[in-house]
Amino acid sequence: MIDDIEIREATLDDIPEITSLFRDTVLKVNSRDYSEEQVKAWSSGADNIKKWKERITKFYFIVAEVGDTIVGFSYLTKGYYLDGLFVHKDFQRRTIASKLLRIMEAKVSINGFDVIKSDVSITALDFFDSHFYEVEKKQKKSLKGMTFENYIVYKEL
Ligand SMILES: CC(C)(COP(=O)(O)OP(=O)(O)OC[C@H]1O[C@@H](n2cnc3c(N)ncnc32)[C@H](O)[C@@H]1OP(=O)(O)O)[C@@H](O)C(=O)NCCC(=O)NCCS
Fold it and tell me: Is the pLDDT of residue 33 over 90?
């Protein structure tokens, strides 16, 4: 547990830190559940700077910081869809994702929705289960010519 986690909205200046966190977490943490080929393809999404700019400017995108280091981030699309939740590989299991998720759930309620939805990796399923999310279905998602198994989950707020 860390006490001094600050959460704020992301800015375009955060892109280098956000993309390197994303790349490292996919390569080091998601590699528990996906093949080397899969995590290589997935993590290469870090290079699509245009897309990260779009996510930060168009969506509700928050970062968690400890001191000057970004240790997690999350973003919400359509007002209710949690489209990304990633924690720094060296700061796993220290409640960072739980804090980001609490803020996202509150934001979804403020936006006037009573259900939050997401599609989540095999790696994140136990985390969402521990936060009382239900599995709607298991699915196969295609990304960069590769197939990824993941789950659509939801929670009534
Ligand atoms: C899933 C993820 C976001 C969780 O972040 P985190 O900051 O480590 O999660 P927290 O510390 O808030 O976890 C809170 C609780 O969730 C549960 N939990 C979290 N990770 C878990 C795991 N790998 N296995 C089992 N339970 C887990 C535990 O109950 C945990 O409490 P505990 O540590 O006291 O046992 C993080 O592991 C991650 O970045 N994974 C890779 C990226 C990813 O797959 N993101 C999902 C979107 S595709």
Answer: yes
